[in-house]
């Protein structure tokens, strides 16, 4: 067995699902890139142990899981149990978190590393994480996250969203912090419920798209507001994307409104989102309608899954298993047919890679060597059982196995 972070140059005897059928292959890797995927060589000579060789033992190989909506800076993983407190509203959770985060040492490099370790153990090789930016923290959370990620030596791919959890406009100075974060290299700036948090949807959205246009960063905005109120804010975003030429730069996180609209209204909105390249992420909330898989695909609206917070002051739940979130989405959406289950796995893995700034991944020559090995019959079986991840390779380096 190779040591953690050791380079892998050949993964022998794995099954890769191409075109709905499994193919027994070897996967050759050079650096962080797949260079060849020949049929599996099961000859005696091929089974000899060599440096950089990993025996896949006939396991199912999938592209690494992509966690497109995480909050790795604000967990209490590894600390004594933290009882749920405060009020259950968005405002209540914000206040409770602000009151207690310093007491438990949030954000912390050590805790953030623990969360990342959980992600990796469950097969995540790339992520997009929202990191709190506010007047109390400044940009310290971003520094913490970067330091925690550095321990993976570039094997783990991550994009950072500077996230104004406490609002953008209602706290003077936050917008300046977002601009500073944009100048200092974050991938995206965030927003939060422009209508109900800042109570100024036009003002918040104009401020965010202005920074995006000036600094070339993306926008990833939390939008919890329901039905027509949420749709109205998405339309405000679309107006500005179209006017300023920001196609392909905006993600709507949560976007509960989309699943709550009347059918014709939802389809019209999705068609416009697809044309503008506006993407979505979901954490598959159990108590709300799910984003409609077939309609999103029909209108070209790319979407991906995220774990949201994991054991944080908003909720004690979360294991860091992105495949478990995909399972939750499929089950709550009543998806049962093979094509749909396979599609959900694609979204959770290679199709989600652009949400972390990577090309889509199908484990073909030229793709990044982000690979998870699972003891499963096929992708559908891996989704409905979510078995343990037997090996995790990120950027051509063995992280688990």
UniProtKB/TrEMBL annotation:
Residues 55-398 form the Amidohydrolase domain. One of its GO terms (molecular function) is hydrolase activity, acting on carbon-nitrogen (but not peptide) bonds, in cyclic amidines. InterPro entries: Amidohydro_3, Metal-dep_hydrolase_composite, Metal_Hydrolase, Metallo-hydrolase_Enzymes. PANTHER family: BLL3847 PROTEIN, CYTOSINE DEAMINASE. This is Cytosine deaminase. The lineage of its organism: Bacteria, Bacillati, Actinomycetota, Actinomycetes, Micrococcales.
């Amino acid at each position: 067995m190779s040591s953690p972070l050791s380079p892998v140059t050949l993964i022998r005897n794995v099954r890769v699902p191409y075109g709905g059928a499994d193919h027994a292959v070897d996967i050759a890797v050079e650096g962080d890139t797949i260079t060849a995927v020949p049929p599996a060589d099961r000859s005696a000579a091929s089974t000899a142990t060599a440096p950089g060789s990993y025996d896949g033992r006939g396991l199912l190989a999938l592209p690494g899981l992509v966690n497109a909506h995480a909050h790795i800076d604000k967990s209490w993983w590894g600390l004594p149990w933290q009882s749920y407190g405060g009020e259950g509203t968005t405002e209540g959770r914000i206040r409770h978190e602000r009151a207690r985060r310093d007491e438990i040492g949030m954000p912390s490099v050590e805790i953030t590393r623990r969360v990342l370790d959980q992600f990796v153990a469950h097969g995540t090789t790339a992520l997009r994480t929202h990191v709190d930016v506010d007047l109390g923290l400044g940009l310290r959370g971003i520094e913490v996250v970067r330091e925690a990620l550095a321990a993976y030596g570039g094997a783990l791919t991550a994009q950072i969203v500077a996230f104004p959890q406490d609002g953008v406009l209602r706290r003077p100075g936050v917008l300046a912090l977002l601009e500073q974060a944009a100048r200092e290299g974050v991938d995206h700036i965030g927003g939060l419920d422009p209508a109900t948090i800042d109570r100024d949807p036009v003002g918040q959205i104009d401020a965010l798209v202005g920074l995006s246009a000036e600094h070339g960063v993306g926008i990833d905005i939390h939008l919890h507001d329901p039905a027509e109120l949420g749709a109205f804010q998405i339309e405000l975003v679309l107006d500005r994307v179209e006017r300023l030429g920001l196609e392909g730069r905006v993600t709507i996180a949560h976007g509960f409104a989309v699943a709550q609209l009347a059918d014709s209204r939802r389809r019209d909105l999705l068609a416009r989102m697809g044309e503008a390249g506006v993407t979505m992420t979901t954490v598959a909330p159990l108590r709300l309608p799910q984003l409609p898989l077939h309609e999103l695909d029909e209108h070209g609206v790319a979407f991906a899954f995220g774990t949201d917070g994991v054991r944080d002051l908003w909720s004690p739940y979360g294991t860091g298993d992105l495949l478990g979130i995909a399972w939750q989405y499929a089950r709550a959406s009543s998806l049962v047919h093979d094509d749909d289950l396979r599609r959900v796995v694609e979204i959770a893995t290679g199709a989600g890679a652009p949400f972390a700034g990577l090309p889509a991944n199908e484990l073909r020559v030229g793709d990044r060597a982000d690979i998870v090995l699972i003891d499963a019959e096929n992708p559908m079986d891996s989704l409905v059982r979510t078995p343990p991840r037997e090996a995790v390779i990120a950027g051509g380096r063995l992280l688990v196995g």
